[in-house]
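re: that chain from earlier
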Amino acid sequence: MESFSSLLKNVSQGELVLAIVFIIYLILGLKTPEPIANLIDTLVGKVVLVLVVIYMFMHVHPVLAVLSLFVAFDLLRRSSLATGLDALQKYAPSEEKKMSQFTAYNQFPYTLEQEMVAKMAPAKSSGFSLSQASYKPLMDNLYDASPVNA
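^ sequence. v structure.
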C-alpha cells in the first residue's frame, strides 16, 4: 500500500481527474460523435493527437502519459469506424487488385480461327512499294453530289 501511496504522492488533482476520465472512456467504449470523428480522422487531426500525446509524456505523470497513449489509439480507431474509413480500407479493392483481376479476365487461349487467319494471311513486305500501279482509278457518275473531300 505504501508503494501505491508513494506513486500518487506527486500527482495533482487535475491529473487524477484526467486519469479517471481516460479510464472511463476506455472501459465504456463510447462511440465518437460524427463531427469530432471527422476532425480526428484527417491528417491534421492525427498530427495534433500525436503532439498532445508527446506533450503528455513530457509534462505529466508517466502513468497518465501511457494512459493517454492508449486513449489516443482507441480514439483513432473509433473515429475511423465512425467515419467509415476503416471499412473502406478493408473492403474496397486497390488498383493493383483490380488490374490483376482485369488481366486474369482478358487471358484468352489461341483459337482455331486465329490460327487459320494467320495461315491465310499474305506475306507482309517490309517498307512501302514505290512502283506505279498498273491500273488507273475511275470516278463514277456523282449525280450532282459534292465530293467527299470538299
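Helices lie at 2-7, 13-28, 34-40, 43-59, 62-83, 85-91, 95-105, 112-120.
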